[in-house]
Design goal:
two-stranded antiparallel sheet; 2 strands; 70% helix; mainly alpha
Length: 361
């Protein structure tokens, strides 16, 4: 197992290299780089994209659409533009910039944001708790609800209970997370009906002055709706996975043998079937967490006004703040690859019979 883990760890390097290379290459063809964004702000245009659509003007002065000659009718000195390019490191060749960035990232030096005047690693540390909150609690709740429900559906397979719950699960899976989030806001956050939960944020304004119990209560009060919105799709998938896994195990010979020995249905179900049926469900916990962490973060954070990594990455991409864009991309890619290894280790931990080295051999 040690050699397998070593190989997987070594594979992280070329995989991350490929991820960064593809995205870095794509960015070179995207109009409206950081220099153009900075000039648009200086000239009062607010956003460079108005120039590309032909609507960006400043006091009647037209803005050119060329990314190499983005200078308004006011006429900014070429020396000033060159200073901006040097400040952002865009005066160096593309290949040199790419490998310099990779070398810095290998040392976890992500530089400083172009427009926020703060280091990228500090921004990530500041926003990470929000995204982890959504991902972790959503995954835990999905498991807490899905496993008992999936077992109940497997035991009652084909009954009216199974049919009705399957219909509810399919409906839940079909509802987009953002639409369910808006529905929750309308119903429970003062949209049109009840003001039960807060509309935005992760904590109240007076959070610092609250007692320990008050802080805990306030925290859970704020995360209830965002967590519910990000849980719905994972909940449906896990429930069906648990049910199908149990149905596969119940039909095996060792279950028939256990019943023949006179064991009660509860002893058969939880003493024999549960451990084997839960292999794929429990081992998949890291992957489910990452799926929720990555998939729902941007939309849910935006709808509920939560300042997390998803929103940070989106705003940086719009503003062409490359250090944040590539820094968050590197962190997300690294987390995803490490979680893949953890998932494999979970399989071995849950079922020691699994040997990835023999499978590869």
């Amino acid at each position: 197992m040690g050699s397998y883990i070593l190989r997987r760890l070594l594979l992280i390097i070329p995989t991350l290299f490929g991820i960064m290379l593809v995205n870095f290459a794509l960015v070179q063809f995207v109009p409206g780089g950081p220099v153009e964004q900075a000039i648009a702000r200086i000239q009062g245009g607010g956003d460079v994209f108005g120039g590309f659509t032909g609507s960006g003007t400043d006091a009647g002065n037209e803005v050119t659409t060329s990314t190499d000659n983005y200078v308004g009718a006011r006429g900014l000195p070429p020396e000033f533009i060159e200073e901006l390019r040097e400040e952002y490191g865009l005066d160096k060749p593309v290949v040199q910039r790419f490998f310099t960035m990779l070398w810095n990232y290998m040392q976890f030096d992500f530089g400083e944001s172009f427009f926020r005047s703060v280091s990228v690693i500090d921004l990530i540390k500041e926003k990470l708790p929000v995204s982890i909150t959504l991902g972790l609690w959503s995954t835990l709740i999905a498991y807490i609800v899905s496993i008992p429900l999936g077992i109940a559906k497997a035991v009652r397979d084909g009954t009216r209970f199974d049919t009705w719950t399957s219909g509810a699960i399919i409906a839940a899976y079909a509802i987009p997370g953002f639409l369910f989030a808006i529905l929750l806001l309308v119903l429970f956050a003062g949209g049109s009906y009840w003001q039960v939960f807060p509309l935005r944020g992760l904590t109240s304004d007076n959070w610092e002055s609250l007692s320990v119990f008050g802080k805990i209560t306030d925290y859970f009060w704020h995360i209830t709706l965002p967590v519910l919105a990000s849980t719905i799709s994972a909940f449906a998938t896990l429930t069906l996975l648990t049910k199908n896994s149990f149905l596969d195990e119940i039909k095996k010979h060792y279950v028939i043998t256990a019943r023949a020995k006179g064991l009660s249905e509860k002893q058969v179900l939880y003493g024999h079937v549960f451990r084997n049926a839960m292999l794929i469900v429990i081992a998949g916990f890291p992957a489910v967490f990452i799926g929720v962490f990555f998939g729902a973060s941007l939309i849910i954070e935006t709808i509920f006004s939560l300042d997390g990594l998803g929103r940070l990455g989106f705003e940086a991409a719009v503003a062409r703040d490359y250090p944040i864009v590539f820094g968050t991309l590197f962190i997300f890619g690294l987390i995803g690859l490490v979680v893949g290894i953890i998932s494999d280790l979970m399989y071995v931990l849950v079922d020691p019979r699994i040997d990835f080295e023999k499978r590869e051999g």
